[in-house]
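Researcher: Quick one. three chains, 789 residues in total.
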Amino acid sequence: MTDHPAELHERRILGTELLWAFGVGVLIAATLSVIVFTALTRDINPPSNVERIDPKTLHLSGEFAEQNLGTTVTADGGVTVRVIATQFMFVPRCIAVPRQRRVTLRFATPDVVHGLLITGTNVNTMVVPGFVAQVHTEFPRSADLLMPCHEYCGLGHSEMWATVQVVPEDDFKPDQDGRVSCAQR
Amino acid sequence: MVSADQPSAGDVPSEAADPVDEAALAAVMRVVPLGAAVLAGSAVALLVIGYLAIYLLVFLARGMVG
Amino acid sequence: MRNAERLCLAHFCVAFAAFLGAAMLGAWQMWVRSPLGANIGTPGQYFMSVTAHGVAMAYVLSTFFIMGFGYFVAVTALGRPLPGKVWAWAAFWMAVLGVVMALVPILLGQASVLFTFYPPLTASPWFYIGLVLVVAGSWVWCVLMLVAMRAWKRENPGQPVPLAMFGTVANAVMWLWTTVGVAVELVFQVIPASFGLVQTVDAGLARTLFSWTLHAIVYFWLIPAYIAFYTMVPRAAGGRLYSDTMGRVTFILFLIYSLPVGMHHLMMDPQHGNGWKFIQVLLTAFVTVPTLLTIFTISASLEIAGRLRGGRGLFGWIAALPWERPTVLAAGLAFVMLGFGGFGGLINMGYGMNAMVHNTSWVTAHFHLIFGGSVVIMYFAIAYEVWPRLAGREHPSPAPLRLQLWLWFLGMMVMTLPWHWLGLQGQWRRVANFNYADPIIAGWGPLVVVSLGGGLVLLASALLFVRNLAVLHRSPVPTLQRPLYALAVHPPQRVPAALNGFGLWNVLVLILMLLAYGYPLAQFVIAPSPAAMVHRVN
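Model:
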């Protein structure tokens, strides 16, 4: 076996590897482009508003004081839900949201790291003490959904969940303060 | 202590060195890596198809989120 | 190999003892959170078990196995005695002390913070100090790997470092970089908090530091399996490694791209903006490349073996492979699990799509399948290949080895595939017991039971694994002399310095880490997040 054919052989091997790498590179780039495209055109992003808040004074006044929690509809029709995550419950335990309208959900915690998701939807966020977690979404269907805490927060973690009532437009009636509560079922 | 009829894992003694015949290797290398490309390529293609399917049919179907 | 044999065996013994204990805990956990075990076990017991299970599998099995395997490679691939054996033994005992020191508070219920220990939940300081000792022991291992390689290079100037050692040292260098994140978090934040020296802790900073370690550590676990793919599987199959060069490229790509991607574990976190998350998603796309290269190169290597054995046509070479050999079987099963596990990983990293799966059973499925499945099955294969050479004995029969590997594969698939589906339904993680009376959760019950079945099969496989090693250790059959490491189709005569060392690549790692983690970490120094109160669990 002279050196020349061996070298050619090795170059052929590396050539096939390069071809393969190019092929998978194209596939990866294509897949990433789909992600970027939907991110830009359909506003699909992870929850990333980077807004600081002091966990030690959450409950005292301001946005997350107890009287402001739950669903609020502002004069311009914007729907905002404010929830506190704490060991071991969400406050309030039930929230009502409208179907097929943009909803902004805002979460804060006075104690440890929590997280939450809403079953059957793309709502998912961590709740880290020191930050307000914010998620915008539209709920496509009316249903009763679960909103569990999904990050270990202590021994009571398994019992920590809230319910979400997605209600059709006709049943989503704010009271005089713009608040909407869960229907009693 | 080894006796001739005791089996051992991994290799039969006659294949202990597993010598690769250079001529056979050269012959085989004319075809390789076609089979590997088809196998690995199919696997990656399935991965990408499955990925796009979940992205479009499950994720996007659940509504915009940001 | 004198004295290094006992060193390797000692590490493997600790690794597999931890593995067996953790497997039993895992099966218990699956039972109590299923409908069948609905009223069994308290949350205190459950989260103690999850902590022990996670620490044992993620920190003890992995680190001790990798160290033991590394010492073996350093001696056998380089053909020279291990330098610094005294240091290696000292590191071993320090790490063992660390395991004991971490285990005691766990078993006393004073460290139920899980293997991720996110502050401000805070455990007994001895838990964290124990983990620090394990990591410190592994740092000694890293240094010894570098020393061994450098000594060999001095004795063999201009020669390519044998691929198995090149991969091992790449892994060691990467581990040194990897552990910086968690070390800083523990030393400067968590341990002071656990001693009561500070009352608050910056949770956003802690999570970010931990994410630095959390992704790269899985590549620390994975690279030894890939070392086996490149340097042992082609030999076991009776063929050649398709490309030694690509092996080196693969290990270098892992070194570079495993680290600046940790933020994809923080995709749902509020302390980082979209831009930084997207940059790390892009880098995560790059870290898929070495795996995609590997599946091609190893498939080609197996194709060589299969065609040498008479396999013809597009797929005939697959059937022609010697599947009765445990190493070959393990590699095939590992690749199947790698396909499924990799698929899950691609979904996880998909930027906004992470919202669909974060902290659901999908994630649990992903890492059990890819680490517990593809990687650990290769740990089994490596142990089955290496232990005979360490103990000087041979397995009496390969059949129980194959059975054990098949059980592991089947159990892992049956356990994790339902978890993927359940995750999409919204089943969330780290739950001691589910309320199966709830209509949504009730629907999950049957799949949870199926998954439990898989877990029990895994437990059987774990017991069989330990049994196989015990039988081997006392086997009357002396070991056959046979080569372990594969030859390449074109064994390299010379390789460029860039493929024979890590100086250049360390610079690149530094640049990428500054790019990816520079501001995300600096922001906590410039403007610390409002601090969270320490919450003790002890």
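The interface with chain B takes residues 1, 9, 16, 20, 23-24, 27, 30-31, 34-35, 38, 42-45, 47, 120-124, 135-140 of chain A (CB under 8 Å).
Researcher: Thanks, that's what I needed.
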